[in-house]
Amino acid sequence: MSKDRRLFVCVKQKSEVGEDVARALKKELKQQGLKSQVIAGEKWRTQVQTCNCLDLCKQCKKGPGAALIVYPEGTVYGNVRPADAAELVAEHLGRGHVVKRLHLD
Hints:
It comes from Hymenobacter glacialis. By secondary structure, the chain is of the alpha+beta class.
């Protein structure tokens, strides 16, 4: 049985950048081979989805990027741009490290 991880990318405030971030994350997952992986003996599948609102509008307005949440961890990132996708995928999804410069408390 596999477990699912989802990256929800907000497109409400900044639809164009949110869509671009989602595309970049999907591309990086595929390129880095992390769309499906085994963690602690369990198979995990990762999917990227866009959504209308993450209730982080205040954070979205602070910079040019979009907000996203990684589930099931519940890690929240803000001001994410397409150029950040490679680092987010490698660090958070590949190594299990929060990307502090994008992390929202």
